[in-house]
Every structure is written in structure tokens, then in C-alpha cells.
Design a protein that fits this description.
7-stranded parallel β-sheet, alpha/beta, 2 domains, 225 residues
Length: 225
Amino acid sequence: MTAPLGILGGTFDPIHLGHLELAREVRRALGLAAVRLIPAGDPPHRAAPVATAAHRLAMVQLAVEGCEGLEVDDREIERAGRSYTALTLEELRAEAPARPLALIVGADAFLGLPTWHRWETLFDLAHVVVVARPGVVLEGHLPEPLAREWTRRQTIDAAVLAASPAGAIYVQPVTPHAISATAIRSAIAAGNSARAHAQVGTLLPPAVLAYIDRNQLYRSRPDAT
């Protein structure tokens, strides 16, 4: 069996310690070969990011330096058009047809999966690892098309993820981290006091905080979530 490659997408606007701890914890729990962080260039399901694609990519690259098992993939930044997960997984699958892929999504995002572009094809391309979220209940709350896939595919055996390239749904509990990129941007926009700077500094890798300071990012009040 081949250890799966984890895929964690997001705007990472900015990337913070919650993202990194999530990636590390899921990797350890499931024995993933690595977790590849993929910043979205043009995310289809949310408002446009505040920082440019180039800045967000640079921050992710800084954040993972020295983090064993965490990688950065710039394909959604470089690819023109909307950053559809189905396209990204198709590219990754073409690069290594037999390698198991594990798409990591939060439980809240999983509930909205039927709104994603070509969502049903995701199961042909990867396993879906659903990260449990406090207060988000899946059983009995899934929309009908997703409930059918859940019944067909849900497993409690993590070994299934390495035994085949794609197709399973697995729920992974993780340690909650009450860190929000929105709150970080708001704190930065609110002012440059030493107290605010120290507070934000506990939520970001030092290299990312230094990059934000150096490039004067998020100094105006953010509109995106």
C-alpha cells in the first residue's frame, strides 16, 4: 500500500497556525506521505481574497519552511480561470494515476459539497477526509445527493485510504483551533499598537508576520471573509 498524499486547499489569506496544526495533525493521524497546501488563485465559493495571489503564495511558502511533511503547490495560482478543485485533482491524478489522494475539507465545507463544480467527480479522483468542526453535525443534516454518497462511501477504517486511489469518505477528529484569518486581518487593520501586534503574532508563523509587516498587508479594513 502507498501512503496517501493529503490535499489542503484554501485562500490562506493569510495562512495561520491553525492551518499548519490541522495539516500536521491529519498527516500524523492518517499516516499521510505529506500534506500539500494549495492556495486558490480565484476561489469560486467566496469573495475575492484581500491579499494578491503572489503575496498569499509567498506566505504559504514561508509558513511551511522547515515543516516536515508539508508542501506547497502553486498550480491554482498559475492556472488561469477559477480554482476548481476538480481540475486540480484531475491534474494530480494524471501525474500519478495509482497514488491515493486525500482531499481534506472542513465539515462545514463538506455540507456544501453539492454546490462545487463537478462535485460528484471528486470521489473518482480522491478520498475525502472530513475534518470535524465543533457544532457542525453531519449525520441527518446532509443534503440528499450528498447523503447518498455518504451512505455508499463513508468508512471508519483509515486503512481504506491507502488501499485504493480514491472513493472513500472518512471523518477525522482534530484539535479545535479558534483562529480566524478574518479576525487576523481585522486586528491588523485596526491599528499598529504593540498589543495588537503581539496578539496577532501568537496566531501566525513569525516569518509570515514579518512578511505582512514588510509588505504592509491588511492595513485597511478587510471586506472578504
